[in-house]
Design a protein that fits this description.
The structure holds 2 protein chains of 2 kinds. Chain A is of the alpha/beta class. Chain A has helices at about 45-55, 75-85, 100-105, 115-130, 145-160, 175-190, 205, and strands spanning about 5-15, 20-30, 35-40, 60-65, 70, 85-90, 165-170, 195-200, 210-215, 220-225. Chain A contains 7 helices and 10 strands. Chain A has a 6-stranded mixed beta sheet with strand order 6-7-8-3-9-10, sandwiched between helices. By secondary structure, chain B is of the alpha+beta class. In chain B, α2 crosses α11 (about 320-360). Classes of the chains: A alpha/beta, B alpha+beta. At the A-B interface, α2 of A face α1, α10 and α13 of B.
Chain lengths: ~230, ~400
């Protein structure tokens, strides 16, 4: 199996007085088609790990290979390009533009990788069909339920056909029914071959993943399958 | 490699501008006021300047007067002969010429009317006496109230006839000519054949209070002497040319001895007036434009802060810093452009409106109307520089933690 992510000895220290150590010696391999949950209490370094994995932050030490490319040595420009084209983000608070329709929001995926607008529209329609929102194209996000908003955000992440879906507490703002719907959608995506990485503090969400790792005080430990 | 086609950038920026209609409208209002003031003030001053210059064009801009100093020796040959007037008539641009000889200032002659109607009336007056050519009415822009002016025949026959200025006629008690009144000038009788109406030429108001005689008879009887004043009317715009040529035509031997009075160059006069007015108002317009620019900068900055999450999202989606900067720059430029368009239209309408109420001809500079939206866009662009820089500097990590 090809490796999508390979972390080797990743450390992240924030310059402060005294310096804050967020990550220490993190090693992690994620293969294509994996469904990995990262669990841990707040303040454990989850968000820092997510930022590093999402190329939003650069680790202080160690190597991070995304699809075999060493991202730690890349310039800002290449890293940004890689982030836009290979990683799909799904956030706890959805981050939809409230003044744009569902379709326009989904079309934002791929905007910065030079996909022409007509093709983005086609891809957005397909992605919305995939997440079951084919009938909501012209709605504004304010008229959608929380679950529908998150599915819109997932569709946006899918438009660019990313190698990795990076989900930060994707069900944190959802009730149990919507949580179940989103988790079912994740199962479907994984069945289609997507690579999913979900950061959560909710054990019920983590239980749906194929693999679980726990992060405590910046250190990563594999959790034996239940 | 990240890329952002221009068409998509424009679409994103316009979406951003349209997202908050109220705030966009308020921001545009700042630019509207600035550009509106600019166009209005420039337009009004141009219109007013044109108005002032227009009055000049219609009246004094066609008038040239040549004054000939009286020679000290009365028997010396005259500097300007009466026949020299024909040389001026032939000049291209001259529409009317007349010459007259006037009694020297302070040496007005005693004049009295013969008809005695009111015994209390003072009949002996000292009035200026003019010996004129027959063409005086046209260049002096005068008309006749009653009777007629003398003609070439009166002059060649040395007829003793007189035309009275309106004021002179009033003072002498001459109101009608059908009873053939006579006036005695230094005891010499002359028959009144006409009375002038109004004299519209400003520098020939002396005609109103004068007694005008054929120059031949005046010289015979009153020793009025050679001509002292030549009044010329020209076609519009020919005054400067005629002012140069007339002395040569009148006294080719000694043109520098003649004094020429021509109106000031209307073009420079108009420019001067308009510049004075518009210089002041231009400052006003620029100040309000600066206020508008500050408004845009302020609101765009607030927008940047408010849209922190959006910036983070766009960065997560692969936007580079320059893409973020370009979007906010274009948004503020669009706001400036819209303000410029609406402001220019409002300004033009204001100029037209003011002109209609004042019965002026509106003068609107087409270049100004076209350039104003561009100025608005540039102001918007400048105002957006700092906020766009702030937006581009944001760390996506921090931005994503901002409000959704």
């Amino acid at each position: 199996m090809t490796e999508v992510i390979e972390l080797a000895g990743i450390g992240r220290v924030f310059p402060a007085d005294p310096p804050v150590t967020a990550l220490v010696g993190v090693d992690l391999r994620v293969c294509r088609g994996d469904y990995l949950a990262i669990v841990g209490p707040s303040g454990s370094g989850k968000s820092t790990l997510l930022n590093v994995l999402g190329l939003l932050d650069v680790p202080s030490s160690g190597r991070y290979l995304l699809e075999g490319v060493d991202t730690t040595t890349l310039g800002d420009r290449r890293r940004t390009g890689l982030r836009g084209s290979r990683i799909g983000f799904i956030f706890q608070s959805f981050h939809l533009l409230m003044y744009r329709t569902v379709l326009e929001n989904v079309m934002l995926g791929g905007l910065y990788t030079g996909v022409p607008a007509p093709e983005r529209r086609d891809r957005a329609r397909a992605a919305l069909d995939r997440v079951g929102l084919g009938h909501r194209h012209e709605f504004l996000p304010s008229r959608l339920s929380g679950g529908e908003r998150q599915r819109t955000a997932i569709a946006r992440a899918l438009v660019g056909d990313p190698a990795l879906l990076l989900c930060d507490e994707p069900t944190g703002n959802l009730d149990s029914a919507n949580t179940a719907a989103v988790l079912d959608l994740f199962d479907d995506l994984r069945a289609d071959g997507a690579t999913l990485l979900v950061i959560t503090h909710d054990d019920a969400v983590a239980a749906r993943a194929g693999r679980r790792v726990r992060i405590t005080d910046g250190r990563l430990t594999e959790v034996a399958p239940a | 490699m990240s890329r952002l086609p221009l068409k998509d950038l424009v679409r994103e920026a316009i979406g951003g501008v349209g997202a908050r209609p109220a705030r966009t409208a308020l921001t545009i209002a700042g630019i509207v006021m600035g550009i509106g003031t600019l166009v209005t003030t420039l337009g009004v001053s141009a219109t007013a300047g044109n108005q002032i210059a227009g009055r000049f064009d219609a009246a004094t801009a066609t008038e040239v007067t040549v004054r000939v100093d009286r020679a000290a020796d009365r028997d010396a040959p005259p500097l300007v002969a009466w026949t020299a007037l024909d040389n001026v008539v032939r000049l291209n641009g001259v529409t009317a010429v007349a010459g007259y000889s006037r009694t020297p200032e302070g040496e007005d002659l005693p004049v009295r009317a013969t008809a005695v109607k009111d015994p209390t009336r003072i009949l002996n007056r000292r009035l200026p006496v003019l010996g004129s050519t027959a063409t005086l009415l046209d260049p002096a822009r005068a008309d006749l109230a009653v009777g007629r002016f003398f003609d070439g025949g009166h002059i060649s026959r040395h007829d003793r006839v007189a035309v009275l200025g309106a004021e002179a006629a009033d003072q002498l008690g001459v109101t009608r000519i059908d009873n053939q009144p006579a006036v005695l000038i230094s005891g010499e009788p002359f028959t009144v054949i006409g009375i002038l109406g109004t004299v519209r030429r400003a520098d020939q108001q002396v005609l109103g209070s004068a007694v005008i005689l054929p120059y031949t008879a005046a010289d015979d009887r009153l020793r009025l002497g050679p001509l002292t004043t030549v009044t010329i009317r020209t076609s519009l715009g020919a005054t400067r040319l005629i002012a140069r040529q007339a002395p040569l035509a009148l006294a080719s031997g000694d043109p520098d001895e003649l004094q020429v009075e021509a109106p000031p160059d209307p073009a420079s006069l108009r420019t001067g007036v308009a510049q004075d007015v518009s210089g002041l108002l231009l400052v006003l317009g620029l100040v309000s434009l600066a206020v508008g620019a500050l408004g845009i900068a302020n609101v765009t900055l607030v927008t940047v802060m408010e849209r922190t999450a959006e910036i983070g999202l766009r960065r997560a989606l692969g936007a580079r810093r320059r893409h973020i900067a370009a979007q906010f720059l274009l948004e503020s430029t669009v706001v400036g452009l819209l303000g410029g368009i609406v402001g220019a239209s409002t300004g033009v309408l204001a100029v037209v409106g003011i002109s209609v109420t004042r019965h002026w001809t509106p003068v609107v500079d087409g270049t100004l109307a076209v350039a104003s939206p561009l100025v608005g866009a540039v102001v918007g662009l400048m105002a957006g520089l700092y906020p766009a820089m702030r937006a581009a500097r944001m760390q996506p990590v921090d931005a994503l933690r901002g409000p959704s």
